[in-house]
């Protein structure tokens, strides 16, 4: 880094404040989940794992978590083929109206989440499938699809077209070229994208809130409904499940593709 | 002795079969259509959103009949007239718009140094630490984060307990406008940093060194070299933060406690409290329009920047 002492002082002041802001809720939720008391106080009344025991017993929380997992799985399973194919098509082929198609595929990002959620609620409501879990999965997939396509195009544009031509020269038919050349080349992007899709669908709150009914609440909605009534430490314990999932996905991302890819300009 | 069967493994046979199947389903004369076929599933999925918008548009043109609680059969613009004339909606819209602008300014102020340090630091351990600290809250979800803030800022929360130790009476830190804005800034920081980082990576370090060697202090280098060059990233990040915080639901709902509703909360209430779907749909459509116009204007002025997908073909 070039610069003086005053520069690093200013930089670090802002960065420390940002770090505090970013991590305070996580740290506090972690801490609160280990409290021995019946309400959350600071400093905690002592350490215990009893709230983890409590959430293991609570069937409503467990079921909500399973529902969230199902939703996230459906979302990822749908997003992988759809996003991969679209990403490769956009990055590799000369497509007519490419610009319009790109703008169209960015719609999930430009339409506010509440608009998408209400729209999908009306669509699924008219189709009579509201209250099932798969529409929630599909909805999460639609609203986050640009992440998947972005991840795939980013790695597909690094693939040299010569490689595929070389494979064709060696007599590989189209499907083999796709499976053995194109797909492995975009695999880092597919992994990044699908991890993003999974964790974002696991945490998706607003669209879930609009699409679920009382019998099919997902975990974020369940937590939201509970914190509006009374704040008890069992919610902190169940929130730790989310923190653990997030940490796991980050570790996986770092191992498989490296977190640095988010810093690169295309 | 090798049989011909072993020389030609099963997987090859399967591949050949699949290959023939693929050729039968999509002969090579259709080659030009292939990319469109690959794009089709994505276009269909996003089509659900378009269908949703159409249905919102349809609903917004019907009014609620308060005697039967059914939507009217014929179209009218009465809902739009109500939204534009009633003071309540102007208040909510003003609060959201003001809030999102303040949040954007504060978020960019903190996100820029964060992204800069993350990109420029020579230590890869520090870079990884900053990345993890960024992704962890990003992946945890709004509800859990807001829950953390409830614990910290509540009436018996950590801040008030700590203030009590030094003799300051408890303050109401939650359920007011600053609490919502604070929560939004925290929610937006990862988005902003992740949008800024690629733009900052693209600025060569040598440029700053060159400015310094010509005698510019870091403030001047920053002002005349780094800041102008990072404009695409700043615009992209600012745009994302404005639209996301303008349309957020969870933070105003949880940290505002129902007293600091943003537009999204008003829409939710129309659908689920007063059951006036027509009015809710009208509000949604107007929010979508405002959001799209905002995005469109910035794209026209500054280009799509970081948001462009597959634009750079190598």
UniProtKB/TrEMBL annotation, chain A:
It comes from Shinella granuli. PROSITE patterns: ABC_TM1 (PS50928). It is found in: Cell inner membrane; Cell membrane. The chain crosses the membrane at residues 69-91, 103-124, 136-157, 178-202, 235-257. Its main location: membrane. It is a multi-pass membrane protein. This is Putative spermidine/putrescine transport system permease protein. GO terms for biological process: transmembrane transport. It comes from the Bacteria. InterPro entries: MetI-like, MetI-like_sf.
From TrEMBL, chain B:
It holds the Pfam family BPD_transp_1. It comes from Shinella granuli. It comes from the Bacteria. SUPFAM superfamilies: MetI-like. Belongs to the binding-protein-dependent transport system permease family. CysTW subfamily. Its main location: membrane. The keyword Transmembrane applies. Gene3D superfamilies: MetI-like (1.10.3720.10). This is Putative spermidine/putrescine transport system permease protein. InterPro entries: MetI-like, MetI-like_sf. One of its GO terms (cellular component) is plasma membrane. The chain crosses the membrane at residues 36-56, 97-117, 129-154, 174-197, 233-255, 283-308.
């Amino acid at each position: 880094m070039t610069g003086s002492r005053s520069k690093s002082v200013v930089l670090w002041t802002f960065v420390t404040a940002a770090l505090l802001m970013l991590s305070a809720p996580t740290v506090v939720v972690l801490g609160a989940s280990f409290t021995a008391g019946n309400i959350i106080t600071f400093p905690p009344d002592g350490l215990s794992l009893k709230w983890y025991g409590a959430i293991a017993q609570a069937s409503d929380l467990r079921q909500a978590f399973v529902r969230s997992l199902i939703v996230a799985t459906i979302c990822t399973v749908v997003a992988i083929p759809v996003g991969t194919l679209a990403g490769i098509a956009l990055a590799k082929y000369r497509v007519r109206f490419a610009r319009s198609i790109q703008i169209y595929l960015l719609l999930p990002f430009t339409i506010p989440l509440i608009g998408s959620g209400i729209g999908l609620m009306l669509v699924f409501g008219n189709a009579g499938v509201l209250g099932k879990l798969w529409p929630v999965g599909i909805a999460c997939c639609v609203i986050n699809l640009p992440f998947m396509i972005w991840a795939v195009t980013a790695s597909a544009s690094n693939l040299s077209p010569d490689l595929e031509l070389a494979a064709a020269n060696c007599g590989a038919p189209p499907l083999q070229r796709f499976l053995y050349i194109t797909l492995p080349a975009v695999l880092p992007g597919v992994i990044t994208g699908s991890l993003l899709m999974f964790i974002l669908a696991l945490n998706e709150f607003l669209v879930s809130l609009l699409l679920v009914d009382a019998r099919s609440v997902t975990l974020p909605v369940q937590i939201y409904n509970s914190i509006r009534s009374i704040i008890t430490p069992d919610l902190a314990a169940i929130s730790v499940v989310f923190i653990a999932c997030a940490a796991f996905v980050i570790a996986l991302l770092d191992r498989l593709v490296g977190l640095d890819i988010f810093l690169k300009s295309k | 002795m090798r049989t011909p069967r072993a020389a030609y493994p099963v997987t090859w046979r399967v591949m050949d079969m699949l290959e023939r199947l693929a050729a039968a389903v999509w002969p090579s004369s259709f080659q030009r259509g292939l990319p469109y076929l690959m794009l089709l599933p994505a276009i269909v999925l996003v089509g659900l959103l378009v269908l949703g918008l159409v249905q919102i548009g349809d609903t917004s043109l019907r009014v609620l009949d308060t005697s039967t609680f059914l939507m009217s059969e014929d179209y009218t613009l009465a809902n739009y007239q109500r939204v534009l004339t009633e003071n309540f909606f102007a208040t909510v819209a003003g609060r959201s718009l003001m809030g999102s602008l303040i949040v954007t300014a504060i978020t960019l102020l903190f996100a820029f140094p964060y992204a800069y340090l993350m990109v420029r630091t020579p230590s890869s351990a520090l870079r990884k630490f900053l990345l993890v600290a960024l992704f962890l809250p990003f992946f945890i979800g709004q509800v859990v984060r807001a829950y953390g803030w409830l614990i910290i800022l509540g009436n018996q929360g950590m801040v008030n307990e700590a203030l009590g130790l030094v003799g300051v009476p408890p303050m109401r830190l939650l359920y007011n406008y600053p609490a919502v804005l604070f929560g939004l800034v925290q929610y937006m920081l990862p988005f902003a940093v992740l949008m800024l980082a690629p733009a900052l990576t693209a600025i060569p370090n040598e440029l700053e060194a060159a400015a310094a060697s010509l005698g510019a202090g870091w403030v001047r280098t920053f002002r005349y070299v780094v800041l102008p060059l990072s404009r695409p990233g700043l615009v992209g990040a600012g745009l994302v933060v404005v639209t996301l915080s303008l349309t957020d639901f969870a933070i105003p709902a949880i940290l505002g406690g129902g007293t600091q509703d943003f537009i999204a909360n008003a829409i939710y209430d129309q659908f689920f409290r007063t059951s006036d779907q027509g009015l809710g749909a009208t509000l949604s459509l107007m929010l979508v329009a405002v959001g799209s116009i905002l995005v469109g204007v910035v794209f026209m002025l500054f280009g799509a920047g970081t948001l462009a997908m597959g634009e750079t073909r190598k």
